[in-house]
Amino acid sequence: MSAPPAASERPPAPAKPPRRPGDVVFSGLSTASAFSILLILAGVAIFLISKALPVFGADPAEVTGGEGFLSYVWPLVFGTLVASLIAMLVATPVAVGIALFVSHYAPKRLGTAVGFVIDLLAAVPSVVFGMWGFQVFAPKLVPLFGWLEEHLGFLPFFESASRTGRTLLTASLVLAVMILPIVTSVSREVFLQTPRLHEEAALALGATQWEMIRTAVLPFGRPGVIGGTMLGLGRALGETMAVAIILSPGVFTWNLIDTGNTTVPAEIALNFPEAAGLRLSELIAAGLVLFGITLAVNLAARAVVERRAEFSGAN
């Protein structure tokens, strides 16, 4: 048996093939695109901060409301967060149910048709949702608000009911309809990616259809559902026209079924065209607060998804 060759006698390692010009160009464009996102985000943040600075150093009596910027903006933040959270709580279970029906229960033709309708719902302009909510949906909710006032009026959220239906709860439900296609589409695609072997293994062990979904499909799709929900929440946080059309701007109140309350995007949309001076800085500062909230929501969603990253259909 011959001895192994000495290190000096071993063949040299094969040289790396030269990079093609197309690869170099594509790599450069990809890198530039990635850094451009960071630059755009930084540019937006710098613009908002620079334009909002005057309101932070202004006399509180000169700010809208006469009690300083914090007193002015926190009711708007409250309306934005409450409307978005209600929309997410209403839309997410419905969206997950629709996604499961399309991916695991419906016949292929019916599932395709339902999926097409859901995707088509995402193409409806927000102003159309706003007009529908104002003209059709809000009047239909008046009897429900009356029932809530009669039976749950001891709670501060349902003390008195609006006779027009143009309330924060109405806007929240319209937002739920608007974010439904986003959460449904993402959840449906994630559920369809569940490894077939996992599903067949669960069924082979005697699991029912629901038990198979609960033990194989939902755990696999949880990160995608969370990501889709956060996308929908981001849409709800930034929605402007639908909320501006439905709500009548008013004073802050804990009551969800009476007039009053508005959101940061609606406040900016309704007042920005005529704003000037310190009032313009107020609105830009409110936009800065909304920018920070949206950024925090996305970072939290990314942290939740990354915590589930170790789960994969292959392990």
TrEMBL record:
One GO location term (cellular component): plasma membrane
Region (Disordered): 1-20
Sample GO molecular function, one term: phosphate transmembrane transporter activity
SUPFAM superfamilies assigned to the protein according to its UniProt record, in alphabetical order: MetI-like
One Pfam match: BPD_transp_1
Membrane-topology annotation of the record: Multi-pass membrane protein
GO BP: any one term: phosphate ion transport
Membrane spanning residue stretches: 24-49, 69-102, 114-134, 167-186, 236-257, 283-305
Function: Part of the binding-protein-dependent transport system for phosphate; probably responsible for the translocation of the substrate across the membrane.
Database matches in Gene3D superfamilies: MetI-like
Biased composition (Low complexity): 1-10
Domain ABC transmembrane type-1: 77-301
Alphabetized NCBIfam families for the sequence: phosphate_pstC (TIGR02138)
Family as reported in the entry's similarity comment: Belongs to the binding-protein-dependent transport system permease family. CysTW subfamily.
Organism of derivation: Phycicoccus endophyticus
UniProt protein name: Phosphate transport system permease protein
Cell compartments where the protein resides: Cell membrane
Keywords, comma-separated and alphabetical: Cell membrane, Membrane, Phosphate transport, Transmembrane, Transmembrane helix, Transport
